[in-house]
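User: Hi! I have a protein structure encoded as tokens and I'd like to know what sequence might fold into it. I'm fairly new to this, so please keep things simple.
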């Protein structure tokens, strides 16, 4: 049996629906809404404090790969945020999807690998897939579903979240395998965030109960993090004769319109294997034309190609990352968006 996430907030208050009734997947197919090939995901807008009021529902923030599971009458597909088919990368999740006992469905959620305390671990997920560009399949990953976009011939994207969640909870009630429910927690948002941070979690997600499913970063969903983590472009590195892989630190940039803006460097978080891979890969991307205007005798500039996930504690007055730590490289198929400098939260 796959593990369940242990650090649920205020576990005794988790919302539950009535147990779902078994459905006969062989029942005749009725001519309802056509099933979309893909639905562009709804993205959470970064905020520093949780919203207040009864209109907002809260969940844990997972640290993994955003995926959509498409269950069809004769197959199940797992689609990345960028629209790539990764069914073969998550065989256990695909098998669980085929056994859900439903004719058609689209589940929105996150694939994660849990640590021994039930917390999602992005590095462990990457390792289970063989690292960036790896070809391995992950048998450890669990898919936590947090939305239901299509179900038994009905397109639910125009329906408010509260209805979609009710159907999803009925559908996945009691599931403990490779597909599980991302459970809703309720209470004061500030208290939930504080609890999440004390437990060592990523943070929380707030979602407006009355909104339909709208693609893009609309503000219907908000993310409030304990420790900030965003994607930045690697534009070079500082050479070192003593550091592993010859890399003392990575030079990072964010996006501002069509330009790159330097946001500082990161010299912690990567182990020897990471550093050796980065050194070999970045040396193939060397360029004499830096993407950002920097000078230094030990600096090596590279073509802006590799996107790194960086954990940090905030911003300095001059626009650099504070206490940055490297978490890993993002996959091209993950469609990770490089952080837009104009998106720095004001509160």
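Assistant: Happy to help. Inverse folding works backwards from shape to sequence: for each of the 347 positions I chose a residue that suits the local structure. Here it is:
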């Amino acid at each position: 049996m796959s593990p369940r996430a242990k650090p649920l907030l205020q576990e005794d208050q988790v919302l539950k629906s009535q147990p779902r009734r078994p459905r006969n997947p062989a029942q005749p197919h009725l001519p309802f809404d056509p099933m979309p090939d893909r639905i562009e995901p709804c993205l959470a807008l970064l905020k520093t404090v949780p919203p207040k009021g009864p209109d907002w529902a809260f969940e844990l923030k997972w640290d993994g790969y955003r995926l959509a599971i498409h269950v069809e009458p004769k197959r199940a597909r797992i689609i990345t945020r960028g629209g790539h088919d990764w069914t073969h990368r998550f065989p256990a999740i695909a098998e669980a999807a085929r056994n859900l006992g439903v004719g058609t469905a689209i589940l929105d959620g996150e694939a994660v690998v849990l640590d021994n305390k039930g917390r999602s671990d992005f590095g462990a997920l990457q390792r289970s897939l063989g690292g960036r560009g790896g070809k391995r399949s992950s048998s450890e990953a669990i898919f936590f579903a947090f939305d239901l976009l299509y179900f038994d011939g009905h397109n639910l994207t125009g329906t408010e979240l509260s209805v979609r969640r009710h159907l999803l909870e009925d559908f996945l009630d009691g599931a403990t395998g490779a597909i599980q429910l991302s459970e809703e927690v309720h209470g004061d948002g500030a208290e939930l965030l504080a609890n999440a941070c004390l437990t060592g979690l990523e943070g929380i997600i707030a979602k407006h109960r009355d909104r339909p499913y709208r693609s893009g970063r609309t503000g219907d969903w908000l993310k409030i993090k304990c420790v900030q983590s965003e994607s930045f472009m690697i534009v070079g590195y500082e050479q070192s004769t003593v550091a592993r892989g010859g890399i003392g630190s990575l030079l990072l940039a964010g996006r501002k319109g069509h330009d790159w803006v330097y946001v500082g460097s990161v010299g912690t978080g990567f182990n020897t294997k990471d550093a050796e891979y980065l050194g070999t890969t970045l040396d193939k991307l060397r360029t004499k034309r830096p993407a950002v205007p920097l000078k230094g005798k030990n600096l090596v500039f590279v073509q802006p190609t590799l996107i790194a996930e960086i954990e940090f504690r905030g911003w300095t007055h001059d626009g650099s990352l504070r206490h940055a730590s490297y978490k890993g490289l993002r996959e091209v198929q993950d469609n990770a968006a490089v952080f837009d400098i104009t998106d720095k939260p004001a509160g």
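A useful reference point when you look it over: The mean pLDDT is 86. Feel free to ask if any position seems puzzling.
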